[in-house]
Sequence to fold (391 residues):
Amino acid sequence: MIVRLRQPRREVEMAGGRAAHAVLHDLGLSREGHLIIRNGTLVPSDTMLDDGDVIEIRPVISGG
Amino acid sequence: MSKCRSCGEAAVVDLPRHNANFCATHLQQLCVRQVQRAISDYAMFDESARILVAVSGGKDSLALWDMLTELGYRADGLYIGLGIGEYSEESQRITCEFAAERGLTLHTVDLRSDHGFDIPTAARATRRVPCSACGLSKRHIFDRETARLGYDVLATGHNLDDEAAVLLGNTIRWDVDYLARQFPVLEAGHGFPRKVKPLIRLTEREMAAWCVIRGIDYVVEECPMAIGNRHSGYKETLNDMDERSPGTKASFYLGFLDRMAPLIRSAPQSQGAPEACPSCGAPSSSSETPCAFCRLESTSSSHEPVAVRMVLNRTARRAFDAQWGGE
Ligand code: SF4
Ligand SMILES: [Zn+2]
Ligand SMILES: [Zn+2]
Fold:
């Protein structure tokens, strides 16, 4: 599956077949600091992701 | 598939601090209730108030504006063009589109065209950190425009994470004066408008979820000046604690408001500055010398323009180049 990250914008390829929170964990990202958007739709962190998915991991922390 | 706690339909988001998942409808209901509760707990304003919302193009201020109009309040927006390169261009475009699509009234002040400087230039010319020059300019202009345009109250999009991070900083420094003043309402006084923070019961993640669910386009990338600053560091620390023990952040800040603030608050918080600036007339501590904003303006507007990248620290510059392609 394709995982889109922000700040800066970039894409990484990762294996599917696991929960969204496991992906966050592998990338060293906190659950409280991010939302998971799968194929354009917001999903909870325990959602199982598939190989064919496009996942956006959207950071929610702003520093101003 | 996880289900919504309220209706059992498919959930779109998990909120660990509530130990539950919510569907789009019930996440919105939760957000609206928290905002209504903050407005009524702190008597922020009533239905007849004319509200000016400080909008930046980020998730919090656009969500706040959206919620207030959705709840039937009379809320207009004020955007300040800070001149922070492409970040400012994008946030202005997004804010204008948001207002136009919904037929809302948006006022705009542009630092460069109205005051002859921008934030990077002000930071360099006055040797301030950018956020300090920016905070001073925004406060001055929001205060001035709220009064000039005849609004009853200025509403800002500070959320629970923002306030908890400020509280953590104030506590670490034991800054008792700031702690005594950290409150979601500042009363009007001495020419300053009333200021309120209706989002204090909602986290950043909840605000971002609101925007995604409502289809609100907002600037996701943060201001380049914020990268690696101390405020962001406090937020990450609090989120780490929340990860281990969900609800820590909320109990830290909301518990402060409920149990600590009443003990240390001095009388209703009014803002002090009894004199008027001789140059712009804004409330000031002296009628002899120009106010801090006028001094910033005169130093900065005579300085040659400085590019954003030039005032970033090394970490922020690396992130900036990766994001915007460098120069
Ligand atoms: S991060 Fe700093 S410079 Fe950027 S908008 Fe916020 S206060 Fe201004
Ligand atoms: Zn529901
Ligand atoms: Zn002045």
The longest strand of chain B covers residues 74-81. The beta strands of chain B are 13-15, 20-22, 50-55, 74-81, 106-110, 153-155, 185-186, 194-196, 275-276, 283-284.
